[in-house]
Write a structure and sequence with these properties.
globular; transferase; HIT family, subunit A; alpha+beta; nucleotide binding
């Protein structure tokens, strides 16, 4: 059989032809195979700070809270600000945790604006499973960068997000741009 014939035959291997275009993202298989809860027995936000920053996508650490990339981002650069303490809701946070979560959120916005040239942000906390929290036992604030041109048909029609950068690349650029604390 000629190569051309093989290509024609291969076109029929997928089953009945349809009008769908395929977006192949084999790097996402790691997330799919991990299942809905990559850390089933431990809280991912309690575990992350115990490991090297690059391994768990941590970009900055404070005294009472830290910042990491979302493993399942809505957009490239989607950050999470988490207290180190395992608390479920904002009203359980101490005044120090509230202040640092706020300060880290502001810094995260400034850094994302610098490294990604985003046009705006979505900020939010989903508290409790009923409110949409994927990890409902550990408080976390979302910082989602937005661009005037980031809307396309993928999320609306195909329930798919096209992310132009790998998580490791985003973590490197955000961590490198994060202001270093003054230590006396």
């Amino acid at each position: 059989m000629s190569e051309e014939g093989m290509a024609e035959d291969a076109a029929h291997l997928a089953g009945i032809p349809d009008a769908f275009q395929r977006l192949w993202t084999p790097h996402r298989m790691a997330y799919i195979q991990a299942g809905p809860e990559p850390l089933r027995d431990e809280c991912p936000f309690c575990e992350a700070p115990k490991h090297p920053d690059a391994e768990r996508l941590v970009v900055a650490r404070g005294e009472t809270a830290y910042v990491l990339l979302n493993l399942f981002p809505y957009n490239s650069g989607h950050l999470l600000v988490c207290p180190y303490r395992h608390i479920a809701t904002y009203d359980q946070a101490t005044p120090e945790e509230v202040a640092e979560i706020g300060a880290l959120t502001q810094t995260g916005m400034r850094v994302l604006r610098e490294v990604s040239r985003c046009d705006g942000f979505n900020l939010g906390m989903n508290q409790g499973a009923v409110a949409g929290a994927g990890v409902d036992g550990h408080l976390h604030q979302h910082i989602v960068p937005r661009w005037a041109s980031d809307a396309n048909f993928f999320p609306i029609i195909a329930k798919t997000k096209a992310l132009p950068q790998l998580l490791g690349e985003v973590r490197e650029s955000v961590a490198a741009a994060w202001p270093k604390p003054d230590r006396d």
